[in-house]
Amino acid sequence: MIRAEIPGLRGEDLRVRIDGDVLNISGSRTVPKDPTVRRLHRMEIAFGPFERTIRIQVPFERARVTAHLEDGFLRVVLPKKMSERRLVDVETE
Predict the structure, then answer these.
(1) Digit-coded pLDDT (tens) for 69-83
(2) Any idea where the domains of the chain sit in the sequence?
């Protein structure tokens, strides 16, 4: 699971993409429009476009990846790919 702090974004402002073994999170945070604020002295959150790329080092099921945004946190679940097991018959002479 990947958990990313992404405050001030809505789901439609966010894009999660998987390309091979790379997870890409991108989006754009816009400056909130407040007509009562004429000047800001300090901003703790950066605004504008952003992109983060994370290489996933373990095999995972790409078709089962899910992403959920809640309370400023993005949770991306990458189900681990289970190794296939099979019984091998032993031949005798």
Answers:
(1) 999 999 999 999 887
(2) 2-30+47-77
